[in-house]
Amino acid sequence: MRTQPPTIQRLRLSVAGIVQGVGFRPFVHRLATSLQLSGFVRNDGGGVAVEVQGERASLSHFIARLHAEAPALARIERCTIEELSPETNPDFVVRESDNAAGAVAIPPDLATCDACLRELFDPGDRRYRYPFITCTHCGPRYSIVRALPYDRMRTTMAAFPMCEACDREYHDPRDRRFHSQTNACPVCGPTVRLVDASGATIVRRDNDEATPGSNPIDAAAALLNSGGILAVKGIGGYHLACRADNEEAVARLRQRKLRDEKPFALLVPDLRSARELVQLGDDEIRLLGSVARPIVLARKRQHVPIAGNVAPGRAEFGIMLPYSPMHHLLARAVNGTLVLTSGNRSDEPIITDESDAFAQLDGIVDGFLTHNRAIHARCDDSVLRVVDVAGVHQPLMLRRSRGFVPSTVPLAGAIEPMLACGAELKSTVTLAYSGKALVGPHLGDLENFDTLQSFNLTIAHLGTLSGVRPASFVCDPHPDYLSTRYARTRGEQACVYVQHHHAHLAACLAEYGVTGPALGLIFDGSGYGADGTIWGGELLLGDLTDFERMGQLWPVRLPGGAAAVREPWRMACAWLAAAGSPELPPPIAAKIDAERWHAVQHLLDMPELSPITSSMGRLFDAVAALCGVRLFNSYEGQAAGELEAVVRAGLDEAYPFPVLLQPSSPSERPAIEATTGALHSTDTLHRPPEAAIESARQMMFLDARPLVRAVLHDVLADRHCSEIAACAHHGVANAAVTALQLAFEQTGVRTAVLSGGVFQNVLLLERTAALLRNDGWRVLVPRNLPPNDGGISFGQAAAAAARLRRSQTAEEAPNVSGNSRTDSGGGGS
Question: What is the pTM of this model?
Answer without folding.
Answer: 0.89
